[in-house]
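Reminder to self: tokens first, then the designed residues, so the page reads top to bottom the way the pipeline ran.
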């Protein structure tokens, strides 16, 4: 490829390969940079409560790097450079980006626009008892980092949504940026005062909204490689009109992608060299940024993907936590996994024809090894005639 021009036209295949490389699935991964490198490369790693093989924030670096240890993943996110010393500097923080996400700590200043917007909101879904907010801030200042339980309780009842006043207050403080989460203990957020946890050179909200938006649009373009206005807006959940105000001077360049039907923008560095290298074969979390936007996934891969965990069981088509299978730069099937002791169970498998069988078997075997399973059991294959070939591939590999 040559230096990009405003009239650059990409084939659909070129756009697909650019997107794969931008997301870390094409080419040799930077293993030295590890999980922290993946986080900075993607700009955001989505969190979710569902844990089948592992939680989504663990699955995302696994999909790119292979069987990296799960403790290594957690330490990479949450262990500071100098643990236990006053100079400890976190690598990441949690905030609202595409959804609840882990974000590189150096991006703290660029979410100032969102913190200001939250402070300006006129109402909230949860009531906040008088004095509770100030009490939470005082307790954190006095006692140091605490979970919601340690602050006085996360819930009023056993219902997940029935937050206590303390939980409402500390989550509001997190939205405002007065409090930050830079650690998880067993899945519980550990809250601390931002003034204490965020490095001083990053702490203050000095960037105006335009500077913040320009940076996030640029980051989204780099993480996507190439995308439409809607793709770029969705990455950090910006509004389309916010993207419009800054995209012309974001550093991204306009391109045309054959078959997309809408204008697109690309990262110039993604256009500088042809995307080549080794493809990853892996199971993808439904919350992976390669596939988290359904319209983009359909446009790039011709693959319709929907998380069905929140769909009533009788209405599910592909299963509770169906994970797309990536192989050869294509989405070639789905696996709805579960674990039973040291057996990885494929409750339901969807295959894009016989050619997908070896790739799906390979993805299942690598995932089984990663979660310390010694056997793989296939329960249902949507195309019954492909069940025996898939089981045969697994049996030969496990023998």
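Designed residues (399 positions):
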């Amino acid at each position: 490829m040559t230096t990009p021009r405003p009239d650059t036209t990409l084939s659909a295949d070129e756009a697909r390969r650019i997107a794969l490389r931008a997301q870390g699935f094409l080419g040799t991964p930077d293993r030295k940079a590890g999980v922290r490198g993946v986080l900075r490369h993607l700009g955001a790693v989505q969190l979710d409560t569902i844990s089948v093989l592992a939680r989504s924030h663990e699955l995302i670096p696994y999909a790119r790097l292979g069987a990296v240890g799960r403790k290594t993943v957690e330490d990479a996110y949450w262990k500071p450079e100098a643990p236990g010393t006053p100079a400890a500097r976190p690598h990441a923080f949690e905030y609202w980006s595409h959804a609840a996400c882990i974000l590189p700590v150096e991006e703290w200043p660029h979410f100032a626009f969102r913190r200001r917007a939250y402070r300006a909101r006129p109402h909230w879904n949860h009531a906040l008892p008088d004095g509770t907010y100030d009490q939470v801030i005082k307790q954190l200042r006095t006692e140091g980092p605490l979970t919601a339980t340690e602050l006085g309780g996360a819930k009023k009842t056993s219902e997940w949504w029935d937050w206590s006043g303390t939980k409402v207050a500390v989550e509001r403080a997190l939205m405002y940026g007065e409090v930050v989460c830079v650690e998880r203990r067993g899945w519980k957020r550990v809250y601390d005062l931002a003034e204490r946890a965020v490095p001083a050179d990053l702490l203050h909200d000095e960037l105006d909204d335009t500077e913040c938006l320009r940076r996030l649009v640029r980051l989204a373009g780099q993480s996507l490689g190439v995308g439409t206005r809607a793709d770029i807006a969705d990455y950090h959940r910006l509004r389309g009109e916010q993207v419009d105000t800054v995209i012309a001077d974001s550093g991204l360049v306009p391109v045309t992608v054959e078959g997309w039907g809408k204008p697109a923008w690309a990262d110039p560095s993604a256009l500088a060299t042809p995307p080549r290298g080794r493809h990853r074969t892996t199971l993808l979390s439904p919350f992976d940024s390669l596939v988290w936007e359904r319209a983009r996934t359909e446009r790039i891969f011709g693959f319709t993907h929907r998380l069905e965990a929140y769909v009533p069981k009788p209405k599910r088509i592909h299963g509770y936590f169906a994970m797309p299978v990536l192989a050869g730069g294509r989405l070639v099937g789905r696996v709805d996994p579960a674990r039973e002791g040291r057996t990885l169970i494929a409750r339901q498998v969807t295959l894009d024809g016989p050619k997908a069988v070896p790739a799906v078997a390979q993805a299942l075997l690598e995932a089984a090894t990663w979660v310390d399973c010694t056997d793989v059991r296939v329960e249902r294959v949507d195309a019954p005639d492909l069940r025996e070939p898939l089981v045969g591939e697994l049996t030969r590999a496990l023998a």
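The chain has 17 helices and 14 strands.
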